[in-house]
Amino acid sequence: MKKRPAWVWIISAYYLVTLISSVFFVISLGNSQQLVGPLNPISQILISINLSINAGAAVTFFLLKKISIPLMIIALVLGIIGTLVNLFTTNLIQVIGWFGLVGIIGYIPPILIVLYAKHLAKKAMLT
Fold first, then answer.
1. Could you count the other beta carbons within 10 Å of the beta carbon of residue 16?
2. CA 76 → CA 9, 49, 71, 90, 108, distances in Å?
3. How many CA within 13 A on the CB side of residue 116?
4. What pTM was estimated for this model as a whole?
5. Phi, psi of 97 (to 5 degrees)
6. How far apart are CA 112 and CA 117, in angstroms?
7. Each residue of 15-30: pLDDT tens digit?
8. Which of 87, 92, 84, 19 is nearest to 50 (CA)?
9. What is each CA distance from 6 to 109, 111, 116, in whole angstroms?
10. Given this model, what pLDDT does residue 64 score?
């Protein structure tokens, strides 16, 4: 049995925190919809699918499985698509302002995690 690197523990904790906060976000959608407008069905579906894929990516990464890499990439792409859909279908910009788009830096950790997972795969740490 392979020893789990410390970064896998840290990344798994990051996934746990982001998944929990995402679930709370989904639960509080009623309040936020009063500010940004109602989410369309596409956004709601993307959010649900993305939560599920992220959960799968987190578990498979913790278990050191290669399948975690494509799951992470799919979740990242869906997150970007979801953000773009919301930008164009709600009044999100009016609420957060253009400066709020700095939040795009939130996509940096998932990108770095994918790169790290690929590094582990090259070292044969993921099976």
1. 13
2. 20, 12, 9, 21, 10
3. 17
4. 0.80
5. 75, 165
6. 9
7. 999 888 877 776 665 5
8. 19
9. 16, 18, 12
10. 96
